[in-house]
Amino acid sequence: MLRKFFYNLVKRYRHSTVPGWVMLMIDIVLFLVAFAVAEVFTWRFESHVTWKAVWVNLLICGSVTLTFFLIFKTYRSIVRHMGLNDIFRVLLSCVFMALACGVINFVNNQFRILPTRSNIIPSYRMTIMLYSMLALLLLLERFMVLYIYNQYFKRRRREVNVVIYGAGAAGVIANNALKQDIHVEYKVVAFIDDDISKVNQQLDSVPVMRARDVLNAKFVAQKNVSQIIIAIPTIRLMHKQAITNRALDLGLTVKAVPHISLWMNGTFNATQIQDIKIEDLLEREPIKIDNINVVREVLDKTVLVTGAAGSIGSEICRQLLQYNPKMIIMLDQAESPLYDLQFELRNNEPYKKHVDSMAFVIANVKDQPRMEEVFEQYRPNLVYHAAAYKHVPFMEENPYEAIYVNVFGSKNVADLAIKYGTEKFVMVSTDKAVNPTNVMGATKRMAEIYIQSRSTDRTHFVTTRFGNVLGSNGSVIPLFKKQLAAGGPLTVTHKDIIRYFMTIPEACNLVLEAGAMGEGGDIFVFDMGKPVKIYDLATRMIQLSGLKGIEIKEIGLRPGEKLYEELLATKENNIATYHPKIMRAQVRKYPLEDIDREYGELQDIMWTLDDRQIVAKMKAIVPEFISNNSIYCELDKK
């Protein structure tokens, strides 16, 4: 009966915390126990103890004890999450209590302030005995509660065998945090460390081993390991990726301890151990840029960013604000995303201090009168042109819109930059502009051609060309995440399709750096690293999710889609620049009069709204535009 009552009581309140006043009352009771024991032992050694002295002692010691309990707030700790700081605080409070009572005893012996003849108010012997006993009881009480709590729920929690990579401070902290988890019973079966001096030693009775002795199928099977936690916050990116890939191949769930700067209030618990994301496997070592060049380019300048609400445009705006422009005009035709960007920059650090330097403008780059009004009002010194349609299948179905925004929208902004004396125009292009196989890529190549031809001594035009960016709107990773959330399948267009990836901040860093180094008519190509097979990407995402039975379905190439993206056309070469990640492409130059004539003819054809005529003219302007898996393939046979 009593056991059932206890079980129901603990089951009901197992996730609750004991109120502070209850802990304080328990601590006071323990003090009374310690006081009684100390008094009994004192009576055996002191011959002149009186009840009056006992009550005076109780009053003095009780007041001192309560005072230091309140000062050190020993009663506020959540016992089941008790750490070294809590233990230290209990011991420190007892030391100060003993010192305070010693001082009172000394003063009383000198001046006889207290109303008793006894010399033990409180005596040195009693003081040491009392507070040593009290410290012992307080710690025993807390450790007993902690032990009972952990042991009682240990049998009712899901058990997970874990390996911790890193036998340093972060590994120890992660191990302690796992012990406190109330939902899962983690059992650390091994620490892994690259420091050979730590191997064959033990941490918390757990062996420290080499990676090769742990990360193998035999060990994982023997110990039933299901999870690895990387507990080296400063680990090099390539090393982290190698560990993660090896662990995933063994079927392990991979997590990581974040950098200490991300720990909440300087403390750490199991919920802060993060899942490894696919972005972590694709990310590269941070790119260093020459901030002096960008500062010189942007400081106290008026900057216009088109497509400012998009993935690339918004990150360009965030980075530009770090260089203290005089004014940054963020322009986009998408109302809601631009509002979201406005709210973010006006309300979050470190951007909100630049609120007086921000302007947000709703406009469409293909609207020439509206864009002229913007240039007339702000007269930007620099333009970062990121506005564009980019979804290949949509643009294949809507070539009219693709050309009007990507080609003639870019033409509008470029012509106005010349008219209003803009110093530099930087256009964000794509690797799909290289030997294009779709309408979208061809429109970006046509924009490159026009931009490149327009550089003057007064206005320098620069183009930056790169591949896919991680997490951008409509990219493959957000799509896979949605499909995983829905239970699959993950869809790939072709098993052999590959793409280049870089992070949004990395791409925008390079855009700013390339823009600063450009002298006019340049097309800069970024080092995109190694290409990634999309099928392998999908496989890794399934492994990282921990879900079982998720299918990968091949649905066939979409209209205009390539198997392999290129960064340079077949007739292009590149020249190294002072930045190892940025190359200058040697591209074909087009006579200015030919461009004006061809683009004028294209604009006349646009009024027919005949997609086939429009695309045929695009192919005449960009001879390397050969359609793939598209209704426009017929135009290439003529």
Structure in words:
The protein folds into three domains: 14-152, no CATH class; 157-276, NAD(P)-binding Rossmann-like Domain (Rossmann fold, 3-Layer(aba) Sandwich); 291-632, NAD(P)-binding Rossmann-like Domain (Rossmann fold, 3-Layer(aba) Sandwich), CATH 3.40.50. The protein starts with a helix and ends in a 17-residue tail after the last helix. Helix 2 runs antiparallel to helix 3, helix 12 (311-321) packs across helix 19 (504-517) and helix 21 (592-606) packs antiparallel against helix 22. The longest helix has 31 residues, at 124-154. The mean pLDDT is 80. The protein contains 22 helices and 22 strands. The protein is 48% helix and 16% strand. With 638 residues, it is of the alpha/beta class. It has a nine-stranded mixed beta sheet, sandwiched between helices. It has a seven-stranded mixed beta sheet with strand order 3-4-2-1-5-6-7, with helices on both faces. It has a two-stranded parallel sheet with strand order 14-17.
